[in-house]
Amino acid sequence: MKLQHLLAPALGLAWAVTQVASVPVQLFKRGSVPPSQDPFYQAPSNLATYSNGAIIRSREFGYVHNIAGAYQLLYRTTDVLGNAMATVTTVLKPYNANTGALVSYQFAEDSPWMDCAPSYSLDQNSTTLDQVLIEALLYKGYYVMASDYEGPNSVFTCGGTSGNGVLDGVRAALASSSLTGISSSAAVQLWGYSGGALATGWAVQSQKTYAPELNIIGAAMGGTPVNINATLNAVNGGSFSELIPAGILGLSQQYPDLLSYVFSAIKPEYQQLWQSARKQCLHQMSQFSKQDMAQYFNRPDYLNADVVTKYISASEMGHLGTPTIPLHLYHAIHDEVVPYANAKNLVQTWCAGGANIQFTSDELSEHLILAVTGGADAFNFIVNRFSGAPLTAGCTFKTTLTSALDSGALSTFGSVIFDELKTLLNVGIGLYGS
Questions:
Q1: Predicted TM-score of the model (pTM)
Q2: Do residues 298 and 357 both lie within one domain?
Q3: pLDDT band at 127 (very low <50, low <70, confident <90, very high)
Q4: For 163-188, b where at least 16 C-beta lie within 10 A, e where not — what string?
Q5: Per-residue pLDDT tens digits for 273-298
Q6: Signal peptide position in this chain (predicted)?
Q7: Which positions are catalytic?
Q8: CATH code: domain of residue 248
Q9: Residue 109 sits in the same domain as residue 242
């Protein structure tokens, strides 16, 4: 599920060759201080007086590549329990930006620690698959935003809080016109893969009741974790088993009674190991890789406790009705991390409720590979939605040998590689088109 440290193999050639009002705050300059130590992230004492999506403070920061502007907004949102919280969204502006087009890109943060947040990783000098996809969108002239949708408590796997965080982040970006130049009436699209698709899916299913005023015209979701329990069981004992402590701890940090249960059930000799994991990013949790999680607990069926099943069930996608936003979903049939059957069942349920969905099933890819190979079709879906290309009514289902060879995918990969070569040469993103 983690994309932060995965370089896209399809782009290997490139690496080898080389409320609108004035934002009511002063601008700050970003440093290298992690969020847990950065006063910018701290909520004000009067947080509850802010409306959802209201900007509390803002600042510019130096993005690693040459773009017109990079901004961070601390905004108010509400968690799944109704509590006010403050979190950050990052807004990136290309040269010659289309002020009426905004993409909210959901990173697969997949971590129970706020120092793993997208707002911090985007401030670091590294090239990731997420950045390649984001910069492909910037080259089209779209504004791109990435919200710390897990919130300050890093509640990874809590769908309700994550969805609210995405939608309120969009509200904040649309209210930042005097700073970023984004039109308050901009058309919006969402995109996320794996953990990012969890947040995207919850946002699209709750948008019509939580943020009906937003003009969201499309959303792309890949490797979508519909059922958390299915993923926890799928990865146990394998190369992705560190997702289990990350997911359990993240969800527990939303619900105090669940957190109390988890640490009452962990054996004494492993208490410190799990406490330490609360301040680690997913890639730092190698101590849990290929481990059977039952060994850490005083009951082998630790996931069957009532308090666990209660909150895992509450975080299952699909309980909030049918999305009205046109969707592109893509999933590997042999996904070893996020079981395919759950995603297919969700699509069928939403389609029965009248949704508009393009669903692509990929026969050859596995979970991480589809993040790359499926990216071109997702990108093209977003481009087509902004350009006004007609949609096919209802739902369409396609099974492909590999998404990398789908019509339009190869030319898109070529364009992305060319754009990244320009980026490596420090050409301003958006100055000369894509």
A1: 0.90
A2: no
A3: low
A4: bbbbbbbbbbbbbbbebbebbeebbb
A5: 999 999 999 999 999 999 999 999 99
A6: 1-22
A7: 194, 335, 367
A8: 1.10.260.130
A9: no
